[in-house]
């Protein structure tokens, strides 16, 4: 399992690692406290291609493979999880267009998102739909000149400041998931029909705001993403890819917390001996590393399968489940090793614990990942 990347990919990985250390780490605590990653930070990432990491070169992206991309997402998250959340939320939007859109739609939106000129959001989740998108209540009805979209979406990262939102809605209420379509909503053009609530007051990823919004507006005919009735299929393909990105983000939190714990256990002394000389602490570190390394291998394996263009649904679910659970365990144990100091905001451990918690919920909870894995095993 070499998980090789090209020399060009490695050069970009190195650049992202450097920016993460020099730019993202110093602003991570401020982004959390101020509840917003700065536009300047996103612009810096766009300049090296991060905002379009998921896109091929023909649409302005760097054209990197999923293995290299996962390593870069992990590096960004290790430095600032809120920044990674904004970036990967955009990937969900642009993946929707890449996988389900027309050539004209790809050409109109993807190069601009890759360049950092516009920000996208992925409008799937609803207050009453839970983990089953087929239960969504947002509807799209044909009218003269286009489609009337009406409904409510919630927990949508980037939505309040996005330039476009890919909104999923039912175009046939009697067809179940086969009646779901997607639409590219230009937020500037549709501003009169979009009502955003204030950002949610979240436990973690505070620098990456999430919003509930009500949509009641008419969008033009060409806002329909690709083919009517293909929205559910597109969303599931997007989430398969997105789960690898959540796994990579989990790796970033896991590594940051593990490194902090290793350093602290080597420096902090009790009765004249460093903490890592105590078997109870040493065993914690060993368990933390084992979970991290296992998650890393599963994530890179899923990324490699994605690059090979084989069915990677089970692999992405497995990686997401293992990595998100590992990140939570490692962050909590790292805080425990720091004792009372870990509970203060003088150290980043409490932020790691808060940020890691959502990875077991969004883009499919751990319970949903287990369901996906179990179903695949029975086929």
TrEMBL record:
<dbReference type="Pfam" id="PF02770">
    <property type="entry name" value="Acyl-CoA_dh_M"/>
</dbReference>
<feature type="domain" description="Acyl-CoA oxidase/dehydrogenase middle">
    <location>
        <begin position="121"/>
        <end position="218"/>
    </location>
</feature>
<dbReference type="Pfam" id="PF00441">
    <property type="entry name" value="Acyl-CoA_dh_1"/>
</dbReference>
<feature type="domain" description="Acyl-CoA dehydrogenase/oxidase C-terminal">
    <location>
        <begin position="229"/>
        <end position="377"/>
    </location>
</feature>
<dbReference type="InterPro" id="IPR006091">
    <property type="entry name" value="Acyl-CoA_Oxase/DH_mid-dom"/>
</dbReference>
<comment type="similarity">
    <text>Belongs to the acyl-CoA dehydrogenase family.</text>
</comment>
<dbReference type="InterPro" id="IPR013786">
    <property type="entry name" value="AcylCoA_DH/ox_N"/>
</dbReference>
<dbReference type="InterPro" id="IPR037069">
    <property type="entry name" value="AcylCoA_DH/ox_N_sf"/>
</dbReference>
<dbReference type="InterPro" id="IPR036250">
    <property type="entry name" value="AcylCo_DH-like_C"/>
</dbReference>
<keyword id="KW-0560">Oxidoreductase</keyword>
<protein>
    <submittedName>
        <fullName>Acyl-CoA dehydrogenase family protein</fullName>
    </submittedName>
</protein>
<keyword id="KW-0285">Flavoprotein</keyword>
<dbReference type="Pfam" id="PF02771">
    <property type="entry name" value="Acyl-CoA_dh_N"/>
</dbReference>
<keyword id="KW-0274">FAD</keyword>
<dbReference type="InterPro" id="IPR009100">
    <property type="entry name" value="AcylCoA_DH/oxidase_NM_dom_sf"/>
</dbReference>
<dbReference type="InterPro" id="IPR009075">
    <property type="entry name" value="AcylCo_DH/oxidase_C"/>
</dbReference>
<feature type="domain" description="Acyl-CoA dehydrogenase/oxidase N-terminal">
    <location>
        <begin position="6"/>
        <end position="117"/>
    </location>
</feature>
<dbReference type="InterPro" id="IPR006089">
    <property type="entry name" value="Acyl-CoA_DH_CS"/>
</dbReference>
<dbReference type="InterPro" id="IPR046373">
    <property type="entry name" value="Acyl-CoA_Oxase/DH_mid-dom_sf"/>
</dbReference>
């Amino acid at each position: 399992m070499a998980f090789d990347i090209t020399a060009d990919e490695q050069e970009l990985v190195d650049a992202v690692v450097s920016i993460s250390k020099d730019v993202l780490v110093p602003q991570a605590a401020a982004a959390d406290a101020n509840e917003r990653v700065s536009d300047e930070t996103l612009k810096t990432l766009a300049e090296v291609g991060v905002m379009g990491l998921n896109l091929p070169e023909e649409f302005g992206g760097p054209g990197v493979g999923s293995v290299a991309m996962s390593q870069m997402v992990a590096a960004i998250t290790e430095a600032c999880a809120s920044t990674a959340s904004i970036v990967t939320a955009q990937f969900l939007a642009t993946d929707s267009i890449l996988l389900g859109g027309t050539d004209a739609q790809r050409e109109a939106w993807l190069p601009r998102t890759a360049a950092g000129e516009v920000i996208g959001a992925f409008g799937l989740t609803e207050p009453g739909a839970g983990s089953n998108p087929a239960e969504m209540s947002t509807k799209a009805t044909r009218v003269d000149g286009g489609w009337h979209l009406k409904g409510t979406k919630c927990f949508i990262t980037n939505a309040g400041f996005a330039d476009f939102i890919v909104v999923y809605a039912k175009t046939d209420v009697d067809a179940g998931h086969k009646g779901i379509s997607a639409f590219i909503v230009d937020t500037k053009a549709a501003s009169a029909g979009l009502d955003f609530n204030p950002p949610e007051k979240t436990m973690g990823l505070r620098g990456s705001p999430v919003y509930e919004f009500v949509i009641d507006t008419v969008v033009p005919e060409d806002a329909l993403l690709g083919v009517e009735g293909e929205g559910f299929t597109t969303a599931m393909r997007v989430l398969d890819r997105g789960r690898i990105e959540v796994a990579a983000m989990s790796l970033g939190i896991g590594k940051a917390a593990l490194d902090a714990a290793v350093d602290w256990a080597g420096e902090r002394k009790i009765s004249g001996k460093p903490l890592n000389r105590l078997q109870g602490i040493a065993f914690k570190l060993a368990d933390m590393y084992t979970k991290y390394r296992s998650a890393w291998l599963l994530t890179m394996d899923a990324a490699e399968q994605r690059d090979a263009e084989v069915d990677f649904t089970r692999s992405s679910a497995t990686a997401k489940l293992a990595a998100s659970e590992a990140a939570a365990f490692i962050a909590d144990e790292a805080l425990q090793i720091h004792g009372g100091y870990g509970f203060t905001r003088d150290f980043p451990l409490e932020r790691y614990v808060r940020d890691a918690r959502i990875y077991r919920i969004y883009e499919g909870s751990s319970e949903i990942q287990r369901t996906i894995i179990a179903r695949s095993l029975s086929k």
